[in-house]
Amino acid sequence: MANTGNNDAFVAFERVQKSYDGETLVVKDLNLSLPKGEFLTMLGPSGSGKTTCLMMLAGFETATHGEIKLDGISINNIPPHKRGIGMVFQNYALFPHMTIAENLSFPLEVRKIGKSDREAKVKRALEMVEMGAFGGRRPAQLSGGQQQRVALARALVFEPELVLMDEPLGALDKQLREKMQFEITHLAHELGITTVYVTHDQTEALTMSDRVAVFNDGRIQQLAPPDELYESPQNSFVAQFIGENNTLAGTVQEIKDGLALVKLDNGDVIDATPVNVEKAGDRTLISIRPERVEFNRDRLSPDAHTLKAEVAEFIYMGDIFRTRLKVAGRDDFIIKTRNAPDQRRLKPGEMIEIGWLAEDCRALDAT
Amino acid sequence: MSDTTHTGPVLAADGTPLKRSLRRALRAQKLRALALIAPLLIFVLLTFIAPIADMLFRSVENQIVGRTLPMTVEELRDWDGEGTPADSVYRALYFDLFLAAEGKEHTKLGSRLNYEESGISSMFRTTGRDVDNIGKVYQKAIEKVNPAFGEGAFWYDMMSGGQGAEGNETLLSNQIGRLEGLESKTFKGDIGFVPGAEIYKILPNATRAYTAFAAFTVFMDEDVVAEEDPWEAVYPALLLDLREPATMAALAGYQGPGAQELRDLAAQADTLPPVDLKAALVESNEDWLRTEYWEVIKTYSPPYTTGYFLNAIDMEKTTDGIALRADDERIYGILFKRTMFMSMVITFSCIALGYPVAWIMSNLPARSANLLMILVLLPFWTSLLVRTSAWKIMLQQQGVINDVLVWLGLVADESRLVMINNQFGTIVAMTHILLPFMILPMYSVMQTIPQTYLRAAKSLGANNWTAFWRVYFPQSVPGIGAGSILVFILAIGYYITPEIVGGTTGTFISNRIAYHISTSLNWGLGAALGSILLAVVMVLYYAYDKIVGIDNVKLG
């Protein structure tokens, strides 16, 4: 996960620490590098240090310790306006007293680009985000989605190689957000821009990114492509933060052939893939995705361990069924099944047996 | 909304028009709202709108001349402004002045006209004292011929034309109206006397003078007309009438009371002293011969005048029209210019000093911002007078600042800086006093400008200055605008501070207005100056609205 010292790195954080008050660290020993053209998302709950990292990269916060490099050059002491990094802010930060065209023209003017050149670039950038007809309007006359597009165009108009986005879609409604997610990724890849994107929305992170860095408590918990992150979480924080997840607490009984036998707290035994448990006797949280739980005995291997479960609630959700079960002394165990013609609809009170493939169940740290 | 097939008014469920039922539904709400604002509305009307209206009225009002000297004004209309007016003017003046002197109103007119030409006041005062004596000469001569003319009852009978005679109500109400104008009061009720119609035709002057006397006796002295001896003015009036050639003939056929006495008196008229009221007035005060005084009276005889306003802009009315005053008499133009200039300097100093403070306050965390806010508001906790006096102590030649400068050796002891009782002192003290009015609106506007704009500008490549100037500053302009309007308008009408620290070169137009209101008592001129000030403020406000737009002013 720590790929420091990578010479191909376009952006690199090297042992970066940040403290605001001199007592607690908001960012603890951050090492991160990304190659040119990558779309990296920093994902985490609020207060996890992701926005601070972005602000340090943009130059609005100074690193307390460590080095931030851009294209191999340390930028710790370069003021923000000389870094040439495009940035999209949470509330767009379009200048209200300027028209859309003037907003876009601003970064070009401060770079002393000639008038005709400027106009051509502004026009191109606006057309790129399908806002060509809105150059004469003021930001207040645009809808949220349109403002978002303009903010994006403004961050791109001076052709930066690195663009930072700080929860840019937070203020949009769900449908628009999904549309913009697609457009942003599309644009970023088309233009070959390196993008660092900050969000607390895991769906956004999964759908948009080449790689996702999951932040918690000032550290990167896992840095991986979306599928790996979802399917192979490295610790229980990531497992619980990304997607829906069932956890059961237990103790490792034995680890053998890459398979761990876990004894749950109520005495049942279950199979799991050991991830960060080392030896028998370790406390563990096992993690299993709701859609990987099987209650049809025929589909499980004959020697698989199963658990007894009582159906507590059945929720019809259209494309899927969501069933809440009472398992091993807990009543928040969720399973999801696809709404297929032959799919059984479970009834509350029904007693079933559930099980899973060992590779779908991960034995993680107990914290 | 009505559907398209329905053409009439929209109806409510019970069939009444929707508009009416809506009005009824909202009426209680409106009445309650009105009741809530009523106290303030009444207060504002009484203490703000009404005084302003009164001020505007006073600045053009000039009814005192026409009301005090109505006949004179009438007669003077034909005067061409050359030499002295005709004898008839002096005659009218005598009777006007007599009534005014009885009511002690002539001195007010004197002071009013004295604003325009000094010396007139004393002329009115001395002659006002003499009018009785002038009449007394004729009274004595007439009483010598027939003592009956000295008796009140005789006069009463003669002038009313006897029991059941036809009365001249018009003359009566005219004379009462004249008294009302003179005293600025309304008089109601029967005075127990009506001048006879016939006698008025024969003796117009005497009847008019007696009717005036009758009205004055009842309303001012609160006596009974028939029991009082007439005042001196009726005697010259009677003599004037008797000297008219037509009077003899008219008297011949007259049958009313006192007809015989009048005929006898008329027969001896030639033995009585000639009625030369001009000579009498001139003897009382030679100034009645001065053309320029008469010009002033004529110029200011209409009930409304632009004279105050002309005075307020250093011009004057002459018989040749409107002209600029002599160089050494012009003061208001200079004062207006100085007031505007100093108010602008004060406004700009407030912007320069206040902007950084407002900026810091809006960028600090709430706790520290509140502390700073208390410091900004601190001056409001001390009296204006105390603050101004404090500046006097600070800035005077033996004051704190000069002492420090001398101690530091920056200024020689014998050449201490003059920083008070001049423009500098006024500007310093007023900037200090008005600063909070600039900071507060600027702060409240700046508070609403998110820091992300500056960050956005920097991320787009703008350096600190460009980011500030192109992005932050334009958004803070509404605050500057609001503060400037507030400070400028407050400054332009400021009074106490310039009065205390302004000396002669640092005073404002408002100090002059105060002088006219409380010292010279020329309220008309004070009102005109005030009206001009009000107009200037409104013009500036309009200009500001046109240039910056009043929508762009935010107080919070």
From TrEMBL, chain A:
Coiled coil: none
Gene3D superfamilies found in the cross-reference section: 2.40.50.100, P-loop containing nucleotide triphosphate hydrolases (3.40.50.300)
Listed SMART domains: AAA (SM00382)
PROSITE patterns xref list: ABC_TRANSPORTER_1 (PS00211), ABC_TRANSPORTER_2 (PS50893)
Annotated InterPro entries: AAA+_ATPase (IPR003593), ABC_SmlMolc_Importer (IPR050093), ABC_transporter-like_ATP-bd (IPR003439), ABC_transporter-like_CS (IPR017871), Mo/tungstate-bd_C_term_dom (IPR008995), P-loop_NTPase (IPR027417), PotA-like (IPR005893), Transp-assoc_OB_typ2 (IPR013611)
Domain of life: Bacteria
GO molecular function annotations of the record: ABC-type polyamine transporter activity; ATP binding; ATP hydrolysis activity
Reactions that this protein is recorded to catalyse: ATP + H2O + polyamine-[polyamine-binding protein]Side 1 = ADP + phosphate + polyamineSide 2 + [polyamine-binding protein]Side 1
Transmembrane portions of the chain: none
Quaternary structure and interacting proteins, as annotated: The complex is composed of two ATP-binding proteins (PotA), two transmembrane proteins (PotB and PotC) and a solute-binding protein (PotD).
Family listed: Belongs to the ABC transporter superfamily. Spermidine/putrescine importer (TC 3.A.1.11.1) family.
Cited function: Part of the ABC transporter complex PotABCD involved in spermidine/putrescine import. Responsible for energy coupling to the transport system.
PANTHER family noted in UniProt: SPERMIDINE/PUTRESCINE IMPORT ATP-BINDING PROTEIN POTA, SPERMIDINE_PUTRESCINE IMPORT ATP-BINDING PROTEIN POTA
Record-given protein name: Spermidine/putrescine import ATP-binding protein PotA
Originating organism: Roseovarius lutimaris
From TrEMBL, chain B:
Keyword hit for NAD: no
Record domain ABC transmembrane type-1: where: 336-544
Cell inner membrane is among the record's keywords: no
Xref: SUPFAM superfamilies: MetI-like
Source taxon at top rank: Bacteria
Protein's membrane topology: Multi-pass membrane protein
Coiled coil segments of this chain: none
Membrane-spanning ranges: 33-57, 340-362, 368-386, 424-445, 477-496, 523-544
Keywords: Cell membrane, Membrane, Transmembrane, Transmembrane helix, Transport
Location(s) in or outside the cell: Cell membrane
Family: Belongs to the binding-protein-dependent transport system permease family. CysTW subfamily.
Classification via PANTHER family: ABC TRANSPORTER PERMEASE PROTEIN, INNER MEMBRANE ABC TRANSPORTER PERMEASE PROTEIN YDCU-RELATED-RELATED
Protein name: Putative spermidine/putrescine transport system permease protein
Organism: Roseovarius lutimaris
Biological classification of the source: Bacteria, Pseudomonadati, Pseudomonadota, Alphaproteobacteria, Rhodobacterales
